[in-house]
Amino acid sequence: MTRPAFTSTSTPGSALTAAQLASSPPEAILDGLDEEQRQAASTLNGPLCILAGAGTGKTRAITHRIAYGVRAGVYDPHRLLAVTFTARAAAEMRSRLSALGAPGVQARTFHAAALRQLQYFWPMSIGGTMPQILDHKVRLLAEAARRLHVTTDRATLRDLASEIEWAKVSTLTPESYLEVATAEGAGRPAPGGVDHRTFAKLYQSYEDVKLDKHLIDFEDVLLLIVGILEDDERVAAQVRQQYRHFVVDEYQDVSPLQQRLLDLWLGGRDEICVVGDAAQTIYSFTGATPDFLLGFKRRHPEANLVKLVRDYRSTPEVVKLANGLLADRTREAPRLSDPAPWPEPLQLISQRERGPMPKLIQHADDDAESAWVAAEIAALQEQGVPLSEMAILYRTNGQSQAFEQALATAGISYQLRGSERFFSRREVREALAALRTSSLVVDAGDEVSKSVRDILSSHGYSTKAPEATGAVRERWESMAALVALADQLSTEREDFTMRAFITELEERSAAQHAPTVDGVTLASLHSAKGLEWEAVFLAGLSEGLMPITFAKTQKEVDEERRLFYVGITRARKYLFLSSSSSRHTGGRGRRTPSRFLRPLRREMGLEEPGRKIAPTAGGLSPNASARRKKAVTCSTCGAVLTVATEVKRRRCETCPARYDEALFAKLRAWRMEYAKELEVPAFVVFTDATLEVIAELKPSTDEELLKVPGIGERKLEKHGDRLREVLAEG
């Protein structure tokens, strides 16, 4: 059969080679752009804001704008800085600019650009030896906690590290953090199970440890260059002389600290172009905010505004669901008690031919869902869709295990994305060391691929993927990716040698440009941003996972909706949406489908699944109304509860769970082991209903524990100490 071609986002028109462009007038660079892209690319001066929806060719628009400006003589390529958020995106931008005849333009991440400036200006502005950059905060945070006699575990330390990163990019010191976090209406939860005041002390202690050891972290790179530019006019003038024009990609993801740095680079000038999409803001936990994108026109009243809405990536069927998801939030807003500002979303218009209808299905349990996904993937592969053009996306990394097992059982190759950086993995470092040693004696072009296989066979490589998951599988993935890259390069390059392969790997390591395996991608929704596949499986779409349990406020739920939107818009042609009623086979089906699926069902013409409707207060008699005041009602829908297990849970069987699913799973595992130790049935310790309420309320004191249905004085005395230990561990 003829295999279809699979490419990344396509746009109209044919591209000219760099040689053809060099001999053509500058306007030739604009050929092939659509009307809105051309408007963006030909607007070379003054502030420009490009609102670009998913799949609308934003990178194409801004790279053509830069190349056109260079060819037209408006831009000096060495005095223009393009900044984005990932090394991969920066590398892609440099590659495109080079192909368009503008190879001298710098395209870097915020951190890479800031680090380069810091290293250059450190001797003249600060003097002495520049501190080393700390890779991970956990080790220093552990020492900071010990100095304060604060007990922590690794999970807590990771939470604390994330909060420090958020505080720093939000330009908060330990003192100002405490003021902001405890302000009335702030609504910021205390991190890592410690109160805000203790965290502020830990934050200060971490800074002290860092200073003692002559270290800085990644956020310090931005803070230090900001400090230098603010305090040293000579340095600021030199930077502004170097860079006259700026382009900022993914502008919806800038933090207050990055905006502060950008303002210092500009120095009051307005030669800036920003591009972004507020509907794709999904990193607020890192300090990212769409406020700067949405307020750009307010800060620059004379700015030109261009909207890119022609979607060249996804079929009309996929685009319709994406639009419907965002429109549903707009319809809901007037009915909400605490609506967050919600900008009018871009309505995408698909430019592709019609495709298959997305599939939406609910399964009995996680095993049934993962088996179905594996079967659908096998069917698509039979139709000619490469495994590398398929992805399974989920909300949390912990959901990957079931899909890994199902794919391994089906003999389908896969790769995990979003875990440890490829070139930072221990097995990759060991493999590179072995390859370097071998390159001293092996240097024959035709034999490179075979030699790589032989060398890596002692590091976990084999021609067949292992059935095991976890560390064994990840090691094999790493080795297979290196072998596949060697095969590719030996085919593409003449006179390919082992030394050339080592050089390629070192360059990729510096840019964090990881090779890939020809397999299905498994990734969290957050790590899938900026990527696309022919077929996408959005799995685990149940309340408590999408939106995640801890999304309590409207602002947090809105971000979960945007995260789901990002997932939908990763698909070019095939889209599958699935959920399961129960975690385990034979379970009681406590889960309900995500609320975000409701507008999608409407768009697809599917019926809403049955659910319990709470009686209205107006339909009750006075006596019934009085009785209802004393009755236990569902904490979600308000219906009167009469079934004992529902009363214990404080919610209807059909209403979405409000508890922390990860904590619930941990409590059940603890109960099982503890019951074995006591030689009693598990339910004698605590029932599932009681554990659900514990996972929701997360009680920490005896008084709070006694408020949980199913825990009385006797059980508290008998099991309380052990239960508190589990809860303290998070």
Automatic annotation (TrEMBL):
InterPro entries per the UniProt record, alphabetical: DExx_box_DNA_helicase_dom_sf, DNA_helicase_UvrD-like_C, DNA_helicase_UvrD/REP, HRDC-like_sf, HRDC_dom, HRDC_dom_sf, P-loop_NTPase, UvrD-like_ATP-bd
Similarity comment: Belongs to the helicase family. UvrD subfamily.
Keyword Transmembrane helix among UniProt keywords: no
Domain UvrD-like helicase C-terminal, chain residue ranges per copy: 327-573
Coiled coil spans: none
Phylogenetic lineage: Bacteria, Bacillati, Actinomycetota, Actinomycetes, Micrococcales
Name of the protein this chain belongs to: DNA 3'-5' helicase
Annotated signal peptide: none
Protein species of origin: Nesterenkonia lutea
SMART domains found in the cross-reference section: HRDC
